[in-house]
Amino acid sequence: MGNARYNDATWNAYVHATTTGKTRDQIFAQGEIHPDLDPARIKLREAVDSSANPETTPIILAADETGSMGVLAETIIRGSLGTIMRELYARKPVSDPQILCAGVGDVYADEAPLQVTQFEAAADVLGEQVKKIWLEGRGGGNDGESYPIVWLFAAHKTVCDAFRKRNRKGYIFTIGDEQPHTTPISHSRLMRFTGIELQDVDARTALEYASKNWYVFHLIVKPVQNQPVVDTWRKLLGERAIVVDNIENLAAGIVSTIQVIEGHNPYPGWTGQDLVVAQSVVSQLALRP
């Protein structure tokens, strides 16, 4: 997929037509998992080079869609997605970005704990797929969500020319307010929800699988008060567990993170709270890969 490039005017027109005067439930009207986004039905998701995007860089944005975190999907489609693409094109920390969006939940409580779009470069095309995500809104109230299932999908069900041709890694950003489950994802649940044939997999093992080809980050937003969210993530990811205080500034957090990892100065061009977020990212990413 991704035989197109981002166009700011097209994206702005799409957002206006899609979201103006509409509630979250009207934008995300899906009442069950859409077959196009069901990982168990998907053989592979591909980020491959084309004449429009000759040196693709795959980026996965996986937003927690449980409970109050349904606001993440709304924030992404109303503005963050366009800002991310526009700033990546303008700042050029990576070449030819292609984004896959995912909704992630809880394998112990949800019917659809992972939903995945295609990799796309045209944000309006991706936006149409994001609208198919079912905001199931459950979660289990069981001290965690199943963020590592995203890493397993990335490791076992993606094919990207960045890895195959250029020995370049992609980027994974999971985003949410809870800690990852400490119990492994069982073989039966992994097969049911992704079609991936593995024995029980804990978070650290899932991270090892993904880290071969991906820089893995988690953005912590509004951490729940009854869990050691930040401490748990930092033990797992170290400095790549990044606290972003304001959901509205997620785009600045994501783009600035990529700029830091690629050796770029993230400060120029950001203002207000976006600049504050860029400064915070730099302070948290003390080391480079």
Give average pLDDT, whole number: 92
Which regions are unreliable across 5 or more consecutive residues at pLDDT < 50?
none
Could you say which overall geometry the principal axes of the C-alpha atoms support?
globular
Helix amount, in percent?
25-40%
Spatial separation of the terminal alpha carbons: 29 Å
Strand order within the widest beta sheet: 4-3-2-6-7-8
Structural class: alpha/beta
Order of helices and strands: HHEEHEEHHEHEHHEHEHH
Architecture (CATH level 2) name:
3-Layer(aba) Sandwich
Number of helices: 11
Number of strands: 8
Per DSSP, what share of the residues sits in E-state strands of 2 or more residues?
A: 5-15%
Question: Secondary structure elements and their pairing?
Answer:
Elements: H1 8-19, H2 24-27, E1 45-47, E2 57-64, H3 70-91, E3 97-104, E4 114-116, H4 123-130, H5 148-156, E5 158-160, H6 161-166, E6 170-176, H7 187-194, H8 203-211, E7 214-220, H9 229-237, E8 241-243, H10 250-261, H11 272-284
Parallel strand pairs: 1-5, 2-3, 2-6, 6-7, 7-8
Antiparallel strand pairs: 3-4
Helix pairs in contact: 1-3, 3-10, 5-8, 10-11
Can you put this structure into words, describing what you see?
- This protein is globular.
- The chain is of the alpha/beta class and 289 residues long.
- The chain contains 11 helices and 8 strands.
- The strands form 2 sheets. Strands 4-3-2-6-7-8 form a 6-stranded mixed sheet, with helices on both faces. Strands 1-5 form a two-stranded parallel ribbon.
- It has a single domain (8-82, 94-245), classed as von Willebrand factor, type A domain (Rossmann fold, 3-Layer(aba) Sandwich), CATH 3.40.50.410.
- The mean pLDDT is 92.
